[in-house]
Write a structure and sequence with these properties.
Layout: H1 2-17, H2 37-41, H3 51-56
Keywords: Hydrolase, Signal
EC number: 3.1.3.2
InterPro entries: HAD_sf (IPR023214)
Length: about 55
């Protein structure tokens, strides 16, 4: 039984490795209005908040 299972799994593995995967041709998802790739690539500085600032607020 173990040999049959091993042989079957080897055949399945070889069968799946012989086929190429095709990517679906589709357009990328749209961005929100007013947003472009350049704006998304920009990095804004981080505003660090201390514990004292949180306690005082």
């Amino acid at each position: 039984m173990k040999k049959i299972t091993l042989a079957l799994s080897a055949v399945c593995l070889l069968f799946t490795l012989n086929h190429s995967a095709n990517a679906l041709v589709s357009s990328p998802s749209t961005l929100n209005p007013g947003t472009n790739v350049a704006k998304l690539a920009e990095q804004a500085p981080v505003h660090w908040v201390s514990v004292a600032q949180i306690e005082n607020s």
